[in-house]
Design goal:
40% of the residues lie in helices and 14% in strands. The chain has nine helices and seven strands. It has a seven-stranded mixed beta sheet, sandwiched between helices. The radius of gyration is 17 Å and the shape is globular.
């Protein structure tokens, strides 16, 4: 705990058997109270590895629900466990668990209710091996999103995120897409609800075992990001009534 606030780390997993143990071993258990792994019907032995290394809370989807669907299960379980600070960490070891303490302390001290680990701050993306086309893609999308959402994030596409319980109980993440666009819909919801987002520099690693999406899926993702951004923009102008901004039912 930090300041009597329970810290829960959630691991949305898909074919993470080769990297899960290394990721898990770097989690700072001096402050982390619970770890939740949600396996989205992996084709490898991710669940067996999770059991062997001692992860207590393991959820296995009976069918593949997608990256967004996986996160929904993660956050639902974290709230069920009474987590006050919930940190999403990818178990593919692309993001270092060593930043969990810094992210959690920012929220525990009521500085910000949301913290992102940014690969763009400090030139971490290219240094860590991000393909140049993905870097350019990231920068162009982020610029467009900042204009349409009237914000100044360094990137919207990191998978390293920490939330206060209040945020997860406020935004209706269940209304979001089950695929990769879930992340950007949730950012839109967070800003629409009036919460601020902090960013810290995060090194990243690109290697064969790390998860990634191909060019075709990246293009589909980019179009989805633009759709979400314009939806946010027009909602602020009162020109649409997207259901993702509805008040969450208690």
């Amino acid at each position: 705990m930090i300041k009597n606030k329970k810290v829960v780390v959630v691991l949305p997993a898909y074919n993470a058997a080769l990297t899960l143990e290394k990721t898990y071993n770097e989690i700072p258990f001096d402050i982390v109270d619970e770890v939740v792994l949600v396996d989205d019907m992996s084709k490898d032995n991710t669940v067996e590895v999770a059991n062997r290394i001692g992860i207590k809370h393991i959820i296995r989807h009976e069918k593949n629900k997608g990256y967004g669907g996986n996160q929904k299960s993660c956050y639902n379980k974290a709230l069920e466990l009474k987590g006050d600070i919930v940190i999403m960490l990818h178990p593919d070891y692309q993001y270092t668990p060593l930043l969990i303490s810094s992210m959690a302390h920012i929220i525990a001290n009521d500085l910000y209710p949301v913290v992102f680990g940014s690969r763009i701050l400090g030139k971490g993306a290219l240094k860590g091996g991000m393909p140049i086309y993905k870097y350019i893609f990231n920068r162009c999308l982020t610029l467009t999103q900042n204009i349409l959402l009237n914000q100044k994030l360094s990137e919207y596409h990191t998978g390293y995120r920490a939330f206060s319980r209040e945020v997860l109980e406020t935004v209706d993440y269940e209304a979001n897409d089950d695929d990769f666009i879930f992340d950007n819909e949730m950012i839109s919801q967070i800003f629409m609800a009036g919460f601020d987002i902090a960013e810290i520099t995060c090194p990243t690693k690109y290697f064969p075992e790390a998860s990634s999406i191909n060019f075709s899926r990246s293009s589909k993702y980019g179009l989805g990001v633009l759709r979400v951004s314009f939806t946010h923009f027009f909602y602020k102008l009162g020109l649409n009534k997207s259901r993702i901004y509805q008040v969450k039912k208690k």
